[in-house]
Amino acid sequence: MGESNTRIRFWSGLRTIGGTIVTVEHGQSRIVFDFGRCFSPAGNMMERGIAELTDPVADFLRLGLLPPLDGLYGEKPLLAAGSGLRPAGDGHLRQAVFISHLHLDHMALMGMIDPSVPVLMSEESLRLYEALEAIGEGVPNVSGRTFSSFAYDQPVVCGEIGVTPLRVDHDVSGACAFLVETPDVRLLYTGDFRLHGNHPEWTLGMAEAAKRRQVDVLIIEGTTLALTQDGEDDGDSSGGAGLVTEASVAERAAAAMREMSGLAVINMYHRHIERVEALCEAAIAAGRKPVLEPDTAFLLRLLTGREGITVLSESPAEGFVPVSLADINAAPERFALQNSFARSLELLRLRTEGGVYIHSNGAPLGAYDPDYAALRDLLRRIGLNYRYIGASGHAAPEHLRLIGDQIGADWFIPLHSLHPEQMELSSGIRLLPEYGKTYCFENGKLV
């Protein structure tokens, strides 16, 4: 296996939902995509206490929470960790890190990368990230680095490797796939995508572009493959006849708000700005005034230009229309209140009997999270009727096959899945890679 061949290695995310980190190298050129982490108790503990760590990069490396990649971290934390890795900036690599979208399982660790290494994301993603940073939701940026952006469909050259970002539909703005071209292979990494969102044409366009380029290797997400075996869908119906479209979410939410005579409460994921705006419109259609948490209101106004946003506040809120808890208690049937899990105890100060709690992909996401049982117990005690009304950000199993078949790659590698072995396409050879192995493309084969 020589440097004249393209080398692919998988560092994380093969049999987990998220945490995908993959490297593609040719000669002295390298790209990395993505740079997040999957859920782990150790990782959560470290991130909560990151302000107390004297050298977070070194500590994350010691615990195995960062991939042991040469040339990606600063010299000082590498020495502290005793890792033996080569530091960034020593000139042995031309490289860049590409972020497909701004979900934590794809970007949570990007602040650990040395500032000398470019980290790029779509223009939409960078705009969203800067807004998130303004409300305190940026990643732990221990290196004090900045981030850069790329345009869809415009190639980015990194030494001998070209990367063309292709827009896809997902449940966060700015998501994209990456078409990677080296001197001897064309590879497509899908990132996360779906066909049942509001923009299926983006995902179909990605697949058509990959087909035209005659992709050799397809690296494809397989999140929903687990659902067909485990039978657990947390109500999001990501596959089969029960598939819930993004377009139907607002309609179903409006119907639920009309049915109930009490307060409507909505728990949603505010990085999905399109959903936030749709649920605000659903509340208005149901004859209710949507009331947002301050951070969500800030994001919505900044990213959409929407004016006249009502925000939960006990005092005047510059640029917003304030509504207090007393205002809501005076006529709860007139309001739809956003309430994230972190603020759920605020519900104890409200008249909630006979109301509805609409859970629309906000945390906690499902029964695997201990907070989910606590949430359901609270709602039962305060008389709020629970309704799950959401839509998955991931392609249904039949849509995974449709996109994979349309691309028609010679080789396909499913990941971002608990059951990648369930991925079957009409053509191509399936490879289930292993950690610690480097795969080389030689004479049209992955070896």
Automatic annotation (TrEMBL):
Top-rank lineage group of the source organism: Bacteria
SMART domains, alphabetized: Lactamase_B (SM00849)
Annotated function: Counteracts the endogenous Pycsar antiviral defense system. Phosphodiesterase that enables metal-dependent hydrolysis of host cyclic nucleotide Pycsar defense signals such as cCMP and cUMP.
CDD domains membership: metallo-hydrolase-like_MBL-fold
Pfam families named among the record's database cross-references: Lactamase_B_2 (PF12706)
InterPro entries: Metallo-B-lactamas (IPR001279), RibonucZ/Hydroxyglut_hydro (IPR036866), RNase_J_2 (IPR042173)
UniProt entry tagged with the keyword Thylakoid: no
Domain Metallo-beta-lactamase: start-end pairs: 18-229
UniProt name for this protein: MBL fold metallo-hydrolase
Keywords per UniProt: Exonuclease, Hydrolase, Nuclease, RNA-binding
Enzymatic reactions: 3',5'-cyclic CMP + H2O = CMP + H(+); 3',5'-cyclic UMP + H2O = UMP + H(+)
GO molecular function: exonuclease activity; RNA binding
Hydrolase keyword on record: yes
